[in-house]
User: Fold this.
Amino acid sequence: MSIMTVMAAQGVSRTTETRRRALLDAAIEVFARFGYRKTSMDDVARAAGVSRQGLYLHFADKEDLFRATVQHGLRAHLAAAVAALADETQSLESRLVTAFDEWLGRRIGMAGAGASDLIESSGALAGTILSEHGARFDKAVAHAISTSPLMAVYARAKLTPMHLARTLHATARGLKHSSASREEFTASVAIAARMLCAPRPPAAGRTGSSTCRG
Assistant:
């Protein structure tokens, strides 16, 4: 195979992937507005500016499109959250708040009135995808915690970074469902992160300080 043929094939592949991402971006908005049951392939095709046949070139049916849409969204949220956790110019508390906002807070309040079935549909059609990405997020949070001074405190209580990550994640999921807005969610997560990073009683001869700052 010639170099020109390979380059042409790579160009086609990149173009196809770009089109697929554009379709998935459009699908996210439509599913969020109408929910799974009320969304049709025609709705997504119209929103993406393609024909119904063009949409079917990339996705076999609505279930296939929905699973791909969920995975596309989760990948983007996870990448942004991991990047926030890796930013060591910020305090751990700040990194945790930003990461949970990227992972869970970004789409709070964006669902339309017809999207009440999204949680049920996501669990039924994309449960494995959700759990896999959730586990990766827990691992990233646990890593950030493990490299902080926190563990000098929590290890004495036999609590691992993963214990803390999963507990904070569960707390944030509950806060997501009880928050009326993204701003309310972020403020509540900030309190949870502050509690995790709260000052500890000083050891003999030392002054107390936050385990997440400095």
